[in-house]
# Entry
Amino acid sequence: AQSVTQPDIHITVSEGASLELRCNYSYGATPYLFWYVQSPGQGLQLLLKYFSGDTLVQGIKGFEAEFKRSQSSFNLRKPSVHWSDAAEYFCAVGAQGGQNFVFGPGTRLSVLP
Amino acid sequence: EADIYQTPRYLVIGTGKKITLECSQTMGHDKMYWYQQDPGMELHLIHYSYGVNSTEKGDLSSESTVSRIRTEHFPLTLESARPSHTSQYLCASTPRDRGNTDTQYFGPGTRLTVL
# Structure
């Protein structure tokens, strides 16, 4: 079965600073990886996903993520954070063969003015 | 943009009441899910469905039940609500062919408070 860890529970950055949110997964085969964002009181919105091909994936709102198989990681990055990026970020892994999505515990991002 | 709806968005109810949380999607997706999420915490899968007349329990044990009589509709029912059921409930769906390897589309959630 697959699993996901997000080592950082809460991150605070200043507006305009760069951001990297960490995600590590455990799965025996090629994973299907996702990043979702959740604003307070809302559902989850997909930021980006990786299935195959180019390991650097571009998403919405200026986010990107890089799949590194050797490190079992799929870290999310943004070069310049905006105050509206303050939210909860979830990494998720899907797998073929009947297993469902597994979500990480989430990282809460706070943005200082 | 995905079209998946949940009603009500907020519900405050007394202990012992029966409640049904509604989830509908207009995308013709076969696979649907219910997650439970406590504030600031991770999502836990409580139910899922592969299609009409298919329902399965998820990873987290739940006293709720679900039904799937129509493709677009996946309601969740609590026969007797308790304070421990206070949580946010998120519904999601996925196209059939790609199942769990494709994007899950989420509804806005129902925040349930049981007094």
User: Anything to note?
Assistant: The mean pLDDT of chain B is 89. The radius of gyration of chain B is 13 Å. Chain B touches chain A through 24 residues (CB under 8 Å). The CA atoms of residues 33 and 48 of chain B lie 4 Å apart.
